[in-house]
Structure formats: C-alpha cells, structure tokens
Amino acid sequence: MPSSLLPTYARADLAFDHGEGAWLTATTGERYLDFGGGIAVASLGYSHPHLVAALVAQGGKLWHTSNLFQIPQAERLAARLCEASFADYAFFTNSGAEAVEGAIKTARKYQSASGHPEKFHIITFKGAFHGRTIATISAAGNPKYLEGFGPPLGGFDTVEFGDLEAVKAAIGPQTGAILVEPIQGEGGIRVAAPEFIRGLRELCDQNGLLLIFDEVQSGVGRVGKMFAYELYGIAPDIMAIAKGIGGGFPLGAFLVTREAGKGMVVGTHGTTYGGNPLATSVGNAVLDVVLAPGFLAHIAAIGAKLKQGLIGLRDAHPGVIAEIRGEGLMLGIALSVPVADFAAAARAEHILVIPAADNVARVLPPLVIGEAEVAEGLRRLDATCARFERKEAAALSEAAG
Question: 246: closest CA among 282, 214, 209?
Fold first, then answer.
C-alpha cells in the first residue's frame, strides 16, 4: 500500500515498536543497538523512567495554556538553563530551526535597537546546517537545500569554516553577527579549532558584532560538557539548542544575554506551543539527569572510551575507515566507502548510525550508554567493516580468476 506521507525521505525499510536504554526493538521483534539516538535527540535513551514519570504526571494535569499566562514549568527550566550557561534569558521553541530563527531575529533586533538597523548581515559558514526553514537554509547556503525554493533570503555572507582571515575580509558596514556551529554535525562532525572560535569572539568584540552559536546538536551534555562552547573557554551572546533538551519530546530554545536580548521586548516575537507545560516538564526531567553530579564526567569518560575504540577500528580496517572525529558522544567515522552503504551494512549488523556530509557516519548514542554497550557497538561496527573487506576480497578473486 503506498504511503500517504509526503515522499521527502528515503526511509529504510525498518520500523520500531519500542525501546529501552540504548536498544530499539523493531516491529519484527529484532533488537537494534542505537548509535544514532534519533539524530542526537534521545539523550537519555528510550523509556527512561524519570522522563516517562514526568511526562505521565504532567500529561494527567495540563498540556497547554499558551504564553498569555504564566507557565511555572517554563520559568523553572529557563532559570536552570541560564544558571548552567552564560545566558540571562531563554525563549522556548518547538524545534532547532525555530531556535535558530529566533537567534537570527534577536541579533538583527539588537543592532536595530542599538541604532544600527543597517547591520542585519550575518556571517555564516560552508558545511553548516541550521534547519529547513527559508531563513535557516539561506543561512547555511547549501545549494542542495536551496534549489527550487526561489531566491534565498538576503543578509547572509557565507565563508569557509575555520578560515578566520575569510571572516575578517567578510566583515563590512552591514555586518551585525556571526553564526557558527562549534562542531558541524550534518556537515560531517567537523570540529572547529580553538584558535578559530576564540578568534571569532575577538572579532565580534572588536567590531560590535554578536556571536551566535548553533548548539542544536552539540548542546545539553553531548560533548561531555553541558555546552560545546565550554570546550573553547569563551561564551557566545546568543545560542540555539534543541534535540537533547527534550529527550525525544519536541523542545528547543534560544538563550541570550541581557545585552544581546535588549531589543526583544513585548510583541517582538512569539510562539503558540513553545514552552508549554508538557514540553518544559520533560525538559526539566532531562536536566535532572544531565545536571546530576558525575553525569557529564560519565559522558566525557565513556565518549573517550568509544572514540579510542573507533580509532582501533580505523587501524584494523584502513580500507574502510579513513578518520575518527568529534568530542564526547558526538563522533564521526570518515569513510573510504559510501556512507549510505556503510549505514545499510551497519543495520544488517543491527546497529544504527547516521549518515552525514563529507562521507561521514555519525555516532550519536544515548548519553546513558555504558561500557557494555560501547563494547557491543564496537563489535558490531567491526563486523560492518568486515562486510566491505569480504566484498572487496571477493571482487579481487573474481577479477583474478
């Protein structure tokens, strides 16, 4: 029977019925080890008892009231996020794209409120991914996502990721901000060098610009710190988050300093669903776990163990794996074989990884994985690599004989 879903995804012939921890059970009954985490969304894995309890408790009381009224759950979550970051304010959204849109609007409004409405241009970077709205695909500038949607939204100047001199050259009288992912996720787990990120902060300070971080994928513990900006010893003025903060429930936010948010007064921005009691109750439950003593240290330690194991696989399978990238549990396997084929071969070994640009398979397991899951995941990825080696050996044998 043909699907009634708009055919914008090349979906694998695989569906899941339920999950527990880092494991998913398909509708066929087969179990899969999830090293994709729903693209870094299932931060606490599946059926986490604390998240389920929070969802059920709030779901039985009140789902939605709108932002015309006080929402205590949102007030608490905002206060906790600000306490755990550089920010003074939070604005809740339903997705990462909305969070980035809000960050863009906030930066432009800041410059207007500061007497510089002409400074609406934002410098962005090749390889970036900021969402699928017209503004966010325009910001990223990827021709693949822009094609067929008319002229891109103006005001974005895209330069090479990691090239500080190109950034300097792009700053002009209309420049108001710089938007960057400290680790490009969709772009292939490309980690920004410390001197590049620190240089961006200096350029912003020198030129009256705002620094915007897109941490939709890297935030909320994913890299072994609460946020990836902490790896660099600097802080942005505005930051977009989503994915992990909801643990699978649709929730995003942009965080902002008091100064950077000075233009966002009553009536300048809004959302119907964003920050409702159900979403922010789940967000608070996620923070209960992620901010608990020792949890971030666990991510850093287990991430180092996983990365070391992946490096071992690279050494064992140099014809398949070219490089291992990333921080914490945001890792990438740069491949010498097609990434789509690798992801399919991994599914055949009952482990899930996520294709990305630059021929990279992303490894984004739930943050709650332990040493047993790491060992099992490495065993299955080893078997995945062996599939390609057997195929190559068979092809050579056929050619020889």
Answer: 282
